[in-house]
Design a protein that fits this description.
- The chain is mainly alpha-helical and 218 residues long.
- The protein has nine helices and four strands; from the N terminus they run H-E-H-H-E-H-H-E-H-H-E-H-H.
- The strands form two sheets. A two-stranded parallel ribbon has the order 1-2. It has a two-stranded parallel ribbon with strand order 3-4.
- Helix 2 runs antiparallel to helix 3, helix 3 runs antiparallel to helix 4 and helix 4 crosses helix 7.
- 17% of the residues are buried.
Length: 218
């Protein structure tokens, strides 16, 4: 989605750095034990990386981030709820998040996305996508299936209660925007229409994108 949006909008995308995070494979290596031992340093590494992306993205118009501080905090809370994040370390993590957010607010920038695109799909579809991307550390066994289910559930709970910034939900079970160009056109039209409503795009910019890019998808 980040690739598609940045190409469509002609803007910059910011991506999660999986290959450069040496702790991530260790985090997945021995199940609950490795998650408990490495939850704090792993989440701190993501927090530091994501915060740097946020500072750079705030300088640009309509930059696209494939994840956010919100998502990282959800992952940390999920680990806490599962008993896989020591509570004292979680409190410190939360304090660091608050301090980072406050520093952004003081500069006049926003710590919240202008628009969140929530890619929502069934748990089975989520597992299919994990298998398709083929990361060795994410091979699905009973332990990882249980962990992935908790991730799926906490995002579902978040979506139903979040109201701090605009959210558009994309039904992944309905739209295969990666492989089906008609679906891609429909999904992009939904997103760009919402961006116009939020004054992130002008109507004339939307019309230009429709003519030069969307109409050529089908």
């Amino acid at each position: 989605m980040t690739d598609i949006l940045t190409e469509t909008l002609g803007t910059k995308g910011f991506y999660e750095d999986i290959t450069g995070n040496k702790m991530l494979e260790k985090f997945y290596s021995t199940g609950e034990d490795s998650r408990y031992r490495l939850a704090f340093p792993l989440q701190i590494s993501f927090l530091n990386y994501r915060f740097g992306q946020l500072l750079e993205a705030n300088k640009l118009r309509n930059a696209v981030l494939d994840s956010s501080l919100l998502s990282d905090s959800l992952m940390a809370k999920n680990l806490l709820d599962r008993g896989e994040f020591p509570e004292t370390e979680f409190d410190l993590y939360q304090e660091l998040v608050r301090n980072m957010i406050n520093s952004v607010v003081r500069t006049g920038d926003s710590q919240l996305p202008d628009l969140i695109i929530y890619l929502d799909g069934s748990f089975d579809l989520m597992l299919e996508h994990i298998e398709e991307r083929g990361r060795g550390m994410e091979v699905i066994d009973d332990d990882k299936r249980d962990y992935y289910k908790s991730v799926h559930d906490i995002y579902d709970h978040w979506y139903k209660g979040y109201a701090q910034s605009p959210v558009i939900r994309i039904d992944m079970d309905k739209y295969d925007y990666v492989n089906n160009m008609e679906d891609r056109k429909e999904v992009l039209t939904q997103i760009l229409t919402r961006m116009v409503e939020l004054q992130m795009l002008t109507p004339s910019e939307f019309e230009e994108i429709k003519t030069n890019k969307l109409e050529k998808l089908v």
